[in-house]
Design brief:
Elements: H1 6-35, H2 65-71, H3 84-95, E1 99-102, H4 109-120, H5 130-153, H6 168-181, E2 186-190, H7 196-202, H8 208-212, H9 222-226, E3 236-242, E4 245-251, H10 261-275, E5 283-289, H11 290-295, H12 297-305, E6 316-322, E7 325-326, E8 329-330, E9 352-356, H13 360-377, E10 381-386, H14 404-412, H15 416-424, H16 430-448, H17 470-474, H18 479-489, H19 500-512, E11 519-520, H20 522-534, E12 540-544, E13 559-563, E14 568-572, E15 585-589, H21 595-607, E16 613-617, H22 628-635, H23 638-642, E17 649-653, H24 668-673, E18 681-683, H25 688-701, E19 706-710, H26 713-716, E20 723-724, H27 725-730, E21 750-754, H28 758-769, E22 774-778, E23 781-783, H29 787-794, E24 802-810, H30 816-826, E25 832-838, H31 849-865
């Protein structure tokens, strides 16, 4: 008896053929989903060589016409396709048109499927009505006419034209509208030079007069006379009204280091969220140049940083204004070799939407998909707006010198406004008439805004710090209050078995508050400073490498234990036990990054509420080298250039201890060279009480950044650096300390000034020399220098003959050259000034501890041997 009847064999054969046809079609669809973007119509100039991709050929998959009817594939439902040619055309339209999806870097399958489904689905906005098309054309005309207006009236002005990517304005309009759709009331964005002036006028609604005033050659307008930065660095704030409500827009200022604004913007977005906990989290958008996106390391740092706890902003929409050239160097797409400037987005699994900048409706769709993806998955997404650059890097460049072939195509290529006027109203003159009307209206508005308007761009509206802090400054300064904090902070959760180091720490804290004369370690003083702030509602945010524990075991803000029953590690934050309900506390171990993290914390400090204490700590002082751009371009100059009131605190562990030429130093002299106009504050405390009061003072009163040269192991271990508890309770920060152990004022013939741990070496050397004529005055604040206070003290010594500055650093590496003039201004007549410092070397501090201590001993002994 046969195993199968003829009918069952036929059914089996039919099922197998159907399954095979289904597999062939699925393979063909997957090929277009995965590789279609490589042959997409995304280059307006058509200069990119499109590769032959075998996977996109039906024969590669063995696909035949009969498979279409046989497969019963769900993808084909309702399409009415009858053959392979029609299927190929349909897939090409979906995945290879002016909007193409590259999700090859997306590792999460649900996200991939969401993106593919969204691209394949019908977009309600894909077929705009006549009124909507007219609005699109009017916005394109506004973008184009702004550039024409500046070119005609200020042909020599450097403006970094948007021409070739004018549809960026439409893209940003759509992102604002999506914000409103999701009921987000704030959008933060950053961008480089190119197109900034255009967006300031057309998106941020800044009067054209405020921009053109910067181009006034006579410098007679108030704006021109008061300008402290270039116009294409300017930020702005505005409120845009949409059909669904209003959205606040914040464009961050930026310097010429273009991509440095990216982490700053992320910090601003998170800082705003921290200071407005009841509001919806803001959206973040960052606009990049194609060459800068793939070429500046801060982009990679920031992409990864935003994935890290404590730095998340709910995803960022990245827009690359891709003119396929970097400065004067070609940077074209390379589909043949999978070469795209967006490839670095793979490190965070971000999808890329490549879109042709000459196809406005596709640009609008890309913006909608990107923003919806960000809201759906709270993840980064990239829009690659592929256009061109009609002029050189700046309008004065002669681009044909370096790119004659490319600019031959560009010169013949119509603008996007003309192309859309032709395609949006095919076969009629309506588009051209609308374009002429819109262009004239825009040009008239730009020229008209100059009449009677000579203002300058408004200063940032960063909230000012409250002035009356007297009650808070006095708060939490009683012995009983400190005892209560220690009791609450050391009350461990049930079953929490702390490390022996923490057990010892708890005992030290309890001993410190037992009596006012008991010594307080740096660890205790720092934690009590934070406790005093958190208890009355001030936020505290500390980030950097190892800050939870402290590189030198000096903080211990987070305690850890192992839960044996659950076989997992538990954490306990003592400071949370004393924080008021409204006080935010974040202590975050950052990834191994300096530039991005410091930029983030700067941005956070600008937007966070004025009384929040924001701190970044370098693992070692020399690690600040990696963040020098942020220090130079933002922290020390942002207030003067843009009005940004930041009170960021930077902690740079410093002090020569024989640990090599790098880790020994925080480059004190370099920080002091950046000081001007009281832009920052530089302090070098040498006792735990000074440390306590400095932190509180920064949180309660400061409106500018603070750079603190903090101690390392030697000063932490110096018993004399541990102040009695009474000093924490009764005093305040002193920029200049006295000499309670020194000689009587009438006997002083010499004053030694110094900063940091060398004060204790000098005190020992003075005692060994039995010197009875030298007073030792530690300078705890190096900028602004306490000149008036020093002068008053020096005048109290009637027999004074000499003032000596002593530093453990070499001549150029310490504070001497930066404080010399300030000291001279305080000197009484006839008193001479000189300095003692370590001999200069090419490498800096010695690496050998033995050599270091020998040099230190020689240094301080020389002070008194010459006395």
């Amino acid at each position: 008896m046969p195993l199968h009847s003829p009918s069952s064999l036929g059914q089996t054969s039919s099922t197998a053929r159907q399954a095979l046809a289904h597999a062939r079609i699925q393979s063909f669809i997957d090929a277009y989903r995965n590789e279609g973007y490589r042959i997409a119509d995304i280059d307006p100039l058509g200069t990119i060589s499109v590769p032959d991709i075998a996977a996109l050929l039906p024969q590669t998959h063995g696909l035949e016409d009969e498979d279409i009817a046989l497969a019963q594939h769900r993808f084909l439902d309702g399409l009415g396709l009858t053959n392979v040619k029609e299927l190929t055309h349909h897939l090409s339209r979906l995945f290879c048109g002016p909007l193409a999806l590259d999700c090859s870097g997306v590792r999460d399958e649900p996200r991939r499927q969401w993106l593919l489904a969204r691209l394949a689905a019908r977009d309600p906005g894909a077929e705009p009505q006549a009124q909507e098309r007219a609005a699109i054309l009017a916005r394109l005309a506004a973008a184009e006419q702004w550039e024409n207006y500046l070119q005609q009236d200020y042909p020599q002005a450097k403006r970094f034209s948007l021409e070739g990517c004018e549809s960026l304005l439409l893209l940003m309009d759509t992102l604002v509208e999506r914000c409103s759709f999701y009921q987000l009331d704030k959008l933060f964005f950053a961008m480089p030079h190119r197109g900034r002036l255009n967006l300031l006028v057309n998106l941020m609604q800044m009067p054209a007069a405020e921009i053109v005033a910067y181009f006034d050659a006579s410098k007679t307008t108030p704006a021109a006379a008061s300008a402290v930065d270039l116009p294409y660095h300017l930020g702005a704030e505005a409120v845009r009204h949409t059909a669904l409500g209003q959205v606040g827009l914040f464009l961050a200022h930026n310097p010429s280091h273009l991509e440095s604004a990216y982490p700053v913007l992320l910090g601003m977005a998170r800082g705003y969220r921290a200071s407005h906990p009841q509001a919806a989290p803001p959206a973040s958008v960052v606009i990049h140049g194609d060459a800068a996106f793939c070429g500046q390391g801060v982009v990679m740092e920031s992409l990864k940083l935003a994935q890290h706890p404590g730095y998340d902003v709910g995803g960022t929409v990245h827009v690359i204004v891709n003119n396929q050239i970097g400065f004067t160097t070609p940077n074209p797409l390379d589909p043949e070799n999978h070469g795209y400037c967006t490839d670095i987005a793979r490190i965070v699994g971000a999808p890329v939407l490549h879109v042709n900048a000459d196809q406005p409706e596709a640009v609008l769709r890309a913006a909608r998909i990107a923003f919806d993806y960000r809201m759906q998955f709270h993840a980064d997404v990239v829009i690659d707006l592929v256009g061109y650059r009609r002029w050189g890097h700046a309008e004065q460049d002669t681009a044909t010198v370096t790119q004659p072939l490319l600019h031959g195509f560009i010169d013949k290529h119509p603008s996007v406004t003309r192309l859309y006027a032709q395609s949006g109203w095919p076969g009629s003159d309506a588009g051209a008439a609308l374009l002429a009307t819109s262009s004239q209206q825009a040009l008239t508005a730009f020229r008209g805004s100059r009449t009677g308007h000579a203002g300058v761009a408004a200063e940032s509206s960063t909230p000012e710090r409250a002035q009356d802090k007297a009650s808070e400054a006095a708060a939490a300064r009683s012995l009983n209050q400190m005892r209560q904090w220690v009791e609450r902070m050391t009350r461990l959760p049930a079953g929490f078995e702390p490390h022996p180091a923490i057990v010892k720490l708890i005992a030290q804290w309890q001993h410190s508050v037992a009596a006012p004369e008991h010594p307080c370690s740096w660890n205790f003083a720092e934690n009590m400073a934070y406790a005093s702030l958190l208890s009355v509602g001030h936020g505290v945010r500390i980030s950097g490498m190892d800050v939870q524990r402290g590189t030198f075991m000096q903080r211990h803000a987070v305690w850890h234990a192992v839960d044996e029953a659950q076989a997992q590690q538990r954490s306990f934050l003592p400071l949370r036990e004393v924080a008021a309900p409204r006080a935010s506390l974040e202590v975050i171990n950052s990834p191994l990054s300096e530039e991005a993290v410091v930029g983030f914390e700067y941005g956070f400090s600008v937007q966070a509420r004025p009384d929040a204490l924001t701190i970044w700590e370098a693992q070692f002082g020399d690690f600040v080298n990696g963040a020098q751009i942020m220090i130079d371009q933002y922290i020390t100059s942002g207030r003067g250039k843009w009005g940004y009131a930041s009170a960021l605190t930077m902690l740079l562990p410093h002090g020569y201890e024989g640990v090599g030429p790098e880790h020994s130093t925080g480059y004190l002299s370099r920080m002091l060279l950046l000081c001007a106009g009281q832009n920052i504050r530089v302090a070098y405390p040498s006792s735990s009480a000074q440390w306590f009061h400095l932190l509180r003072d920064q949180a309660l009163h400061a409106d500018r950044p603070l750079v603190v040269f903090t101690p390392k192991s030697v000063l932490h271990g110096e018993p004399r650096a541990s102040s009695p508890l009474s000093d924490l309770l009764e005093q305040g920060f002193q920029p200049l300390l006295g000499d309670p152990e020194g000689p009587q004022a009438s006997a002083v013939r010499r004053v030694v000034l110094c900063s940091g741990k060398v004060r204790y070496d000098l005190a020992d050397a003075r005692a060994s020399a039995q010197d009875q004529e030298t007073a030792l005055l530690p300078v705890e604040q190096l900028y602004p220098f306490p000149t008036a206070q020093l002068g008053e003290v020096l005048r109290s010594y009637p027999q004074l003959q000499e003032v000596l500055w002593v530093q453990e650093e070499e001549r150029n590496q310490g504070a001497w050259l930066c404080v010399r003039d300030a000291i001279e201004a305080a000197l009484p007549e006839t008193v001479r000034l000189r300095a003692v410092y370590r001999p200069d070397t090419a490498s800096g501090p010695t690496a050998s501890k033995a050599s270091h201590y020998a040099q230190q001993a020689s240094l301080v002994q020389a002070v008194f041997a010459q006395g």
